[in-house]
Amino acid sequence: MTEKNKDIIGRDIEEIKNSDDNFSEFNLLNAHITEKRSLIHQGGGPIAVQKQHDKQRMTCRERIKYLLDPGTDFFEIGTFAAYNMYLEYGNIASAGLVTGIGKIYEKDCMIIANDATVKAGAYFEITLKKTLRAQEIAIQNNIPIIYLVDSAGVFLPLQDHVFPDENHFGKIFYNNAKISSYGIAQIACVMGPCVAGGAYLPVMCDKYIIVEGASMFLAGPALVKAAIGQEIDQDTLGGATTHSTISGIADFHEKDDISAIDRIRTVVNNININKLNIFNKNKSYLKPRYKASELNMIFNPIKLNPYDMNDIISRIVDDSSFYQYKENYGKTIICGNASIGGIKLGIVANQKTHIKTENSGIQLGGVVYSDSADKAARFIMNCNQDKIPILFIHDVNGFMVGKDAEWGGIAKDGAKLVNAVSNSTVPKITLVIGGSYGAGNYALSGRSYNPNFLFSWPSAKIAVMGADQAAKTLTQIKTAKMGNLSEEKKNEIYNEIKDEYLKQSESTYAAARLWIDEIILPSETRDKLIYTLDIINNIKSIDKPNYGVLQV
Questions:
Q1: Are residues 59 and 198 in the same domain?
Q2: Three-state SS for 18?
Q3: CA distances to 139, 330, 381, 444 from 422, in Å
């Protein structure tokens, strides 16, 4: 007898209020992100692309496309890095560096490729941060790294932003050494200039390929002449022939980009990567019972109306099947088990409906209370005990405040949740679909808590608090020092502060600074999560968690 699945969740879209209005608002946001993404993919623009082609070189995106297995996708990370950050220096598309994961002979590989069409591939501070994040993802998920090097080095007008600090240029080489010690393969292909400190990167990799016409040296001809008076041309100093026949640094000397990329593929194919999946995968999984496109219709991204998070989860998980943990306790956070793409996982998500409690009180949707924090902490520990990944879905206003909350021990229970997230050792994926405010961001595995991947929808807002509350607070502080002001002037100050705060809360602002890995569209969510879980399945082992001292 076939048992009926009693854990099916979700509602038909016809049962959800204002779904057409929600869809219209989301379409505007999605179109904006899609348009900006398309412009970013053009790199430095058509003139810069033509200059690259005139050198008989491919652009970095052309190189990546040829490198990956035919017909497979490139899972890009950090597309919006540097977005609107360096306007005084021009368009710094994707921070002049394209990073992401793709398959080479069916092996997941992290690709880190300089975009020579953007400021000659020069490194800004955010370029370094993006490189380090890509290396971190490779370490966390135990996947090889391919470096496609074509860079003029640091962006000299901002050299003080990229050189001496803990997470500046030197950390890349530190990571090169550590990654090698972990047994994770690194392959570097120098396809253009590779100068100054950047020259250490290919030399510290397991395999080093150099292309005819490319060059690598610690100091270029001009600096050599200035330093020691020696006159020498670039190719003789550090060209492909020099490093493949005289210094012996390069392992392979290839005639052009195509030959070099073919060599990379051959090298990857000869690495014995032991693919032992740590998580069981049911390959006969069922799709959700609802359409992915309906994720654009559940809530209004502008008006921020209450909604049932189960309607989101039902359109992401296999068969729309999700069984809740402590369903009737701590209801402002939903915890439960499901599978996505055949891989079992736990889900911790904010419930956005307002909850009527047993004592006739009201708990506000999206707010973390003592009971919900306590429940989520215990569920996270359960996931570690069961050795399953955790998906955190953010639409959180923060922790409850006020006398009742403080007397009830909200700080203690919040600390317990933060402890559980901090010391969790199973892989974590974070998805921000709405607000991610204050300590709520921390408690649900924000950037500081090392999730394996962190995505957001275009509707995400990431900040210490909501724009309205922040603007009111800052307006009060500012106007208190300005004497008697008219209401009109106070409103003007309030609106200026609020507009700036709204700008700083936007998903593109967060993505530019790599507070999130990638902005994804709602309809892409399930496919991205399936791919992400498959990448996570490359890890070798899961350490036993140690939670230290917990407040009880």
A1: yes
A2: coil
A3: 18, 21, 11, 10
Contacts of 341 (CB under 8 A, 6+ apart): 281, 285, 318, 526, 529, 530, 533, 534
- Answer yes or no: is pLDDT of 176 > 60: yes
* Mean pLDDT of all residues belonging to the chain: 93
Cα–Cα separations (whole angstroms), residue 247 to 240, 244, 250, 432, 522? 10, 7, 8, 50, 52
d(CA 133, CA 81): 11
Residue 226: exposure state from Cβ atoms within 10 A (0-12, 13-18, ≥19): exposed
82 with 224, same domain? yes
Helix axes 60-67, 257-269, angle to 10 degrees: 40
Q: Are 466 and 435 in contact (CB under 8 A)?
A: yes
Judge if 346 and 379 occupy the same domain.
yes
Where do the DSSP E strands lie in 408-506?
428-437, 453-456, 461-463
* Alpha carbons 504 and 168: distance in angstroms, whole number: 24
Helix (H, G, I), strand (E, B) or coil at 73: coil
Is 212 in the same domain as 357?
A: no
* Strand 107-114 to 145-151 pairing: parallel
Indicate the Cα dihedral angle 405, 406, 409, 415, nearest 10°: 100
501 lies in which domain range? Answer: 465-505
The tens digit of pLDDT for each residue in 103-160 reads 999 999 999 999 999 999 999 999 999 999 999 999 999 999 999 999 988 888 888 8
Tell whether 322 and 188 lie within a shared domain.
no
Model confidence at 2, pLDDT cuts 50, 70, 90, reads very low
Look at strands 333-340 and 453-456 and give their pairing.
unpaired
